[in-house]
Amino acid sequence: MPEVIRYENPGIQIFIKSGHQFLDKVRSFLATAVRENKIQQERARDYFREILHIILFYGQINLPKVEPEEILQESNRQLSARYPDIFEMCRTHIPKRPPFTVLLDAIVDIVRTRHEDDVLQCLLLEINDMEVPNGNTLCRNIFVSTVINLCYFSDQCMKSRTPNYFGASVSCRGARQRKIMIDTLCCYTWHRDISWAVCVANQYNQDAFRFPPRVHSMAFNIFTNGQSTQANQRVENLLAGFRDQQVPRFLQIARDLRQFGSLVPRAPCERCFEMFPNIQFYPFPQAHEHAHWEYGNCAECESLSQLLKSHEQIVTRLHRNQFQIGRDRLINAKNRRLEQNLQLLEFRFRDVVQFEGNQL
Ligand SMILES: [Zn+2]
């Protein structure tokens, strides 16, 4: 593509500005945390390397490709000297998860608690002004997810509940690129039962298993600064519905965090409800939002995968349905689609990148 057209292409401009801003924000967030002794330098470095790799990788599967030098721009050139392996790997290795999920993981690590108030407050402060100029207006940074959710399991017999596990929707530009990310998550990242649930739903439009009772999930739309009036109004409207009653927890969270940013409670989409029908969702869907996205796109898969990876006793209590087609065949099909899509975008796939750290 000739240079002039390339730089007038608003899609590429937004990609470059978003990537640059996301890396910049994450770097200063992690640097502050290291200075304040909230995280060890090596660990912070791993988080940054992982996010750097993912964003540069996204550049490589963009159409047209966006090169690392373009994303990092002049001032960041020294990064390529400091992370030469990442600049190589972004052309041959695929990441295991989207950048926002890594940021969420780093936040949980840094705030040292899984309590929703602390994690969500820290997250909102971090992403509040992640908007990029687009002509005369601002638009959302394309690497910031639109939905975040948390889940936990409360066991009545044990009178205890697990900590919260957090997930974010897949933030990725382009239909083919999004499929690449979902297939990667299914094949390489998620707990095997969650991958299976996504494959089964794709194949049969059915649920692969039932969770034991009392798995809870709540989700929020993340509104940008520019949408805060609209977000406030939505929360006010929801609060008005509970005037004489106890305000439910998901709405208290949205209300109390308003000073830090805008979260608006949202019910699960029809796909998640189909995959996980017996989860206690907050808010409970009045009518199902029509999902024009694929199974596996939503925040729920990531957080439920973490819940299962951390609590084997929940895995042993899953009630699995029987299907004619076996797991291997469905996962292989996902793998094939992944490789085909990478090939179509002229990505020379060699391996999946592994970073150290506490990855669930
Ligand atoms: Zn969904």
Describe the protein in words.
With 360 residues, the protein is α+β, with helices and mostly antiparallel strands. It has one domain. 51% of the residues lie in helices and 13% in strands. Bound molecules: zinc ion. Zinc ion (ZN) binds next to α13.
Please tag this protein with its features:
12 strands; two-stranded parallel sheet; 13% strand; alpha+beta; binds zinc ion; 360 residues
Q: Briefly, what is this?
A:
By secondary structure, the protein is an alpha+beta fold.
Helix and strand succession?
A: HHHHHHEHHEEEEEHHEEHHEHEHHEHE
Strand tally, please?
A: 12
Number of structurally distinct domains: 1
Strand count, sense and closure of the main sheet? 6 strands, mixed
Q: What is the CA–CA distance across the termini?
A: 40 Å
Averaging pLDDT over every residue, what do you get?
92
The radius of gyration over CA amounts to: 20 Å
Q: What percentage of residues falls in helices of 4 or more residues? A: 40-55%
Proportion of residues in β-strands? 5-15%
Shape verdict: globular
Structural class: alpha+beta
Which cofactors or ions or other ligands sit in this model? zinc ion
Low-confidence stretches: none
If helices are DSSP runs of H or I spanning 4 or more residues, what is the number of helices? 16
